[in-house]
Specification:
3 domains; ten-stranded mixed β-sheet; single chain; 17% strand; 15 helices; Serine Threonine Protein Phosphatase 5, Tetratricopeptide repeat; 49% helix; Spore Coat Polysaccharide Biosynthesis Protein SpsA, Chain A; alpha/beta; globular; two-stranded antiparallel sheet
């Protein structure tokens, strides 16, 4: 195995991305040796902006198939490796620097580089929700995209799990019904949905608050017994959310617990159980599950990660449970742990002031009792 500086093609599919494409391409400067842009029907200034960065612009007639468009883009690449991004993705300065170092001393025995994808952030700019995606692939392996919607890159071979992050910086403006419409068209045509199709179709229904229909599709997905374990777990969470919206607490609990069929308890689901019991004013049970969430070892997973559940949130909720149980010292202790993670969180700061007020009152009462006894 030898270390080499590799060449990289950045391949993107775009449509009406004038608000974000320049930001994306500025963030990758120095990384790609060529930029391949495939436009699927822009009617704004997207192509005009792209020409500042590359002359490799191709057009692809949109056929409601993201995999087909991405495979076409990949077919235009000429470098050693292919990197893919969406127009509303960026590399931060830190991650761009990491990528450049990786490029200069890359072990070409690796066929794929997998990277965290940061999807949501708190007010401090810290990532709250992420998953992993295969981002950089060896061109001569001819890896293919699969799936008309929510497509995935089918890979094999030697995979490097990198800490270089891609950051999603969506600003809205896309057709929010686009993916659902594609699924509905396919359904009308009588196409048979794969397990993955059933899962992502259910997600689209869920996002459109069509909870009854989402439940049906999630159940159909789980009944196949062919889903990726992370999707199975996620489906249980979404089913629990649907039933919560429909005020079906029995079914909500059933699907939270069903997640344990697929993997040992995750902090996300311990927090769900904690919240379930907290809402039912069963504070001892709530505290049990929130405490368990703080004690779990984070799994090595490519699935979605809710950072709050693995850090500060269960401690904040333990503060609430212990306060309701009159265990103020424990409540304060866990609120302080939460504050170490989120020092500016308004709820945590409120709890701190509230609990210190209780302690001061108790000290005054104790002092008055001692004075009376001394008399």
């Amino acid at each position: 195995m030898s270390n080499n500086s590799i060449t990289i093609s950045l391949c993107m599919i775009v449509r009406n991305e004038e608000k974000t494409i320049a930001r994306c391409l500025e963030s990758v400067k120095g990384i790609p040796d060529e930029i391949v842009i495939v436009d699927t029907g822009s009617t704004d200034r997207t192509k005009e902006i792209v020409r500042r960065y590359t002359d490799k612009i191709d057009e692809f007639t949109w056929i409601d198939d993201f995999a087909a468009a991405r495979n076409f883009a990949f077919s235009k690449a000429t470098m050693d490796y292919i990197l893919w991004l969406d127009a509303d993705d960026i590399f931060s300065d830190l991650d761009r620097g990491k990528f450049l170092k990786l490029k200069e001393s890359f072990n070409t025995a690796f066929d794929v580089v997998n990277m965290p994808y940061l999807l949501a952030f708190d007010q401090s700019g810290l990532a709250t929700f992420s998953l992993r995606r295969n981002r950089l692939v060896k061109r001569n392996k001819n890896f293919r995209w699969i799936g008309a919607v929510h497509e995935y890159l089918e890979v094999y071979g030697s995979i490097l799990n990198s800490d270089i992050c891609v950051t999603h910086k969506g600003i809205g403006g896309h057709d929010s019904d686009r993916n659902l419409k594609i699924y509905e068209k396919r359904k009308v045509k009588g196409e048979t949905f794969s397990p993955r199709d059933l899962y992502y179709y259910a997600n689209e229904l869920f996002d459109h608050q069509l909870h009854e229909r989402a439940i049906e599709s999630y159940k159909d997905f789980l009944d196949t017994n062919q889903g990726w374990v992370e999707d199975n777990i996620s489906a249980c969470g979404k089913l629990a959310d649907c039933y919560q919206k429909l005020e079906r607490r029995d079914k909500q609990l059933e699907y939270i617990l069903k997640s344990f069929q697929y993997a040992p308890p995750r902090a996300e689901f311990c927090c769900r159980l904690g919240f379930y019991f907290l809402n039912g004013e069963q504070y001892e049970q709530g505290a049990f599950w929130y405490k368990l969430a703080t004690q779990l070892e984070r799994p090595i997973s490519w699935g979605p990660i809710n950072e709050a559940c693995w850090t500060w949130l269960p401690h904040l909720q333990l503060c609430v449970c212990y306060d309701r149980l009159g265990k103020y010292e424990l409540a304060y202790e866990h609120n302080e742990i939460a504050r170490n993670y989120r020092p500016d969180n308004t709820q945590i700061l409120y709890n701190k002031k509230y609990l210190e007020g209780i302690f001061n009152k108790n000290e005054i009462k104790t002092s008055q009792t001692i004075e009376k006894e001394a008399e």
